[in-house]
Amino acid sequence: MVADMVPVDIAINVTLAAAWEVATKNTNLKIYHSVSSKNPITYDILRTANFGHGDSERMETTKCIAVQWFFLVKNKTMFCLYSIWYHVIPAFFIDIFLQLTGKKPQLMKIYAKVYNVNKSLMPYCVEKNILFTSNNVDEMWDSLDPVDKRLFFFDLASMDWQEFWLYALKGLRVYILNDPMETVPQGIKHTRKMWIRKMVFDSIIWITFSYLAYIIFRNIF
């Protein structure tokens, strides 16, 4: 499945280049839009980019509050069931814990927003692979000299998505989470602890649901 994404800096460079072209070439009114259809990023690339950098490029952070868990589901019904199991149920219990400790519950509200976004985008951006064209942007790229191409890069056809996500994850870790790369060893230990918590939590949930199913089945039959 294609995840037709365009990095924001690419969109900015296209905007700057389009302003230059319109101002200097007196062209007729054009529509400029940047798409990755010629070199699309897929959800499988996103998955491998998040998990496939190996020991030399570990990204675990001490600021992480949940285990990184990403797998692809093509069936819509299974997607909904997995969302309930991995998102709604944990969020429900975590919000209860937050309430009991005097803190404001928030995860259920967050996942409600995520659900609404998915509901809006899924029929158009996830369930369908749409091929876009960007002839005006392609022509504009070809008209730039080598220096401008280096300074205002927006050629998604030559984008290395694996490399892009490697730097994007580093940027998120260092500049958004304010967690320097030097703390990766601590992040690895933190992630291991969260995996243990996740397995314990999943085991408790599975045992609870299995027991309830057994009780219901026994009472019926």
Describe this structure in words.
With 221 residues, the protein is mostly helical. Helix content is 63%, strand content 0%. The protein is built from eight helices and no strands. It is elongated and about 80 Å long. The two termini are 44 Å apart.
Unreliable segments of 5+ consecutive residues: none
Number of domains: 1
Shape: elongated
Number of helices: 8
Strand content: under 5%
- Quaternary structure classification: single chain
Structural class: mainly alpha
Helix content: 55-70%
Total count of strands? 0
- Alpha carbon gap, first and last residue: 44 Å
Q: Gyration radius, to the nearest Å? A: 23 Å
Throw out a few tags for this protein.
63% helix; transmembrane helix; membrane; FAR; single chain; 221 residues; elongated; alcohol-forming very long-chain fatty acyl-CoA reductase activity; transmembrane
Q: Quick summary of this structure?
A:
It contains eight helices and no strands.
Please outline the helices and strands.
Blueprint: H1 8-25, H2 43-51, H3 76-100, H4 107-126, H5 135-143, H6 146-151, H7 161-176, H8 184-220
Helix pairs in contact: 2-7
